[in-house]
Amino acid sequence: MRNSIKFRLTLFNMSIVLIVFLVFGLFVYYGTHYILSTTLNKQLLLMADAIEDSYIPEKNRFGYLEPGTESFHAAQNAWVRIIRKDGSVYFASIPFQKNPIPFPIKKARQLTGKTHLYRNFQAASQQSYRSVILPIYNPAVKQDIGWIEVARSTEHLHTMLTSLKKLLIFAAPVLLFLVGGISYWMVQHAFRPLMLMRKQIDSISHQQLEQRLPVVNPKDELGQLALRFNDLLSRLEQSFKKQQQLLSDVSHELKTPIAVLRTRLEQELNNPDLPAPVQARIASDIEELVRMSQLVSDLSLLAHSMEGVFQEQKQPVNLKLFLVSLEEDVKTLALMKHHHLNWQVCSDVLVEGNPEHLRRIFYNVLENAIKYTPEGGHISLQCRAENKRVVVEITDTGIGISEKDVPKVFERFYRSDQARQMDATGRGLGLSITKWLLEIHNGTIDIASSSPSGTTVRITLPKYQPM
Ligand SMILES: Nc1ncnc2c1ncn2[C@@H]1O[C@H](COP(=O)(O)OP(=O)(O)OP(=O)(O)O)[C@@H](O)[C@H]1O
Ligand SMILES: [Mg+2]
Question: What is the pLDDT of residues 205-236, one digit of tens each?
Fold first, then answer.
């Protein structure tokens, strides 16, 4: 999951949105804080200014605070007080009377001209307040005669900011969830062609190189990639076909000259006048030719298996007779290595197949058993009929195949290091051809082996079913 691009893209989108939202949240929070504080400051200063402007020097009174007026009534209920220069209270509204907060006279004395001072304080009720302190200028004596302090509760400001904070904290996971869901859906949608391509690639093998990838939108990047890949497939298909053709042609062309040479040499060998060393050389040449013709025949079968279309000429074959005749061929090979053969053929049972190819199937397996068993080993063949199938098991006491090598032995040209040491002539084609021929015959092959205690190869073939 963590390695999936879809997951990583979704996570990336979510992280970007989270960072943007954090920056936006901080901006909104501190922006609102700033706007609310400045508005409050302005309102405080406006009222303090109005009171200061209403000062009548001749009467030493404030028009704003004239008893009986509407402004006086408002000021009485708000937080307003006027402090004389010596610190005594000239006027204190009801809230200030109830909460005689100390006046910061030292700081107030530092105020000159038109300057003013803001401060925060807490009332006895633990409520927070903000106030402005403004000097009162008397033009008659040309100096400040005291200060006006106007205050207001900041509770509503704090309540608003706390609500905003809660809203932002609640919105973050909801937004993340939404963005995550939408991103995943979008990425999934965008990656759909890629999934289709992957599925198709999985199904393409060397036998289906004519298949092509689906192109959902030829104009987008994935469509372009699919087109390029299809191009590559076409080129591969062509070169693969050429190789197949070459393999098929070469193996076909080689068959006749090898057969001619072999016949000639065999005729020559029949000449009793030949000196013994020449006879020995001719016999060894014939052996080489036999091996060569086997290789050519393997290559020809390989070419057919690569083409993927192979019409088999099948006929009912009596497996008992077939295996008895095969024993004759194998015996010579086994005797050369002093192996003991234990041949238990089944009672008359018919399978359907091409006798030449059936022979190749069993011969390849038996040849391996003989080759990969050190001299004087035991090789057994057992055959039994099971329901609709015939099972043939070939067991040897040879070098065995390690667990990790078992699936590989059906690959073309695969040979284990131990096998190479024991037999230099093999090409690693026998079992891959056997497997392919068995597939054509609807048969199966399994290997049970535990190196170094021998190998059992189990072949099954369907019984012949007359129409
Ligand atoms: N009976 C066996 N005992 C031990 N190893 C085996 C046996 N049969 C097959 N193998 C292993 O499987 C490999 C593939 O076998 P396969 O018959 O395909 O090729 P080969 O015998 O090496 O060459 P070729 O059959 O083409 O002459 C062998 O090289 C060997 O490593
Ligand atoms: Mg072999």
Answer: 776 778 888 888 888 888 899 999 999 999 99
Instruction: Round the CA-based radius of gyration of the chain to a whole number and report it.
Output: 51
Residue-wise pLDDT for 447-457, tens only, equals 987 667 799 99
Measured CA distances, 303 to 111, 292, 300 (Å): 105, 16, 5
Are the CB atoms for 52 and 65 separated by under 8 Å? Answer: no
- At the fourth CATH level, the homologous superfamily of domain 315-462 is Histidine kinase-like ATPase, C-terminal domain (3.30.565.10)
Distance from residue 310's CA to the centre of ligand 2 (Å):
22
Per-residue pLDDT tens digits for 111-168: 877 789 999 999 888 889 999 999 998 888 888 889 999 999 999 999 999 999 999 9
From 297, 301, 368, the mutation candidate for ligand 1 (largest count of ligand atoms within 8 A of CB) is 368
For residue 418, the ligand 1 atom closest to its alpha carbon is 31
Chain centroid offset of residue 235 CA = 29
Phi, psi (rounded to 5 degrees) for 311: -90, 115
Q: Exposed (0-12), middle (13-18) or buried (19+): which is 441, by Cβ within 10 Å?
A: buried
Say which CATH topology domain 5-159 has.
Answer: Beta-Lactamase (3.30.450)
Domain ranges of the chain: 5-159, 221-307, 315-462
Nearest CA to ligand 1 atom 19: 428
Q: How many Å is the maximal CA-CA distance in the chain?
A: 162
Q: What is the pLDDT of residues 27-46, one digit of tens each?
A: 999 999 999 999 999 999 99
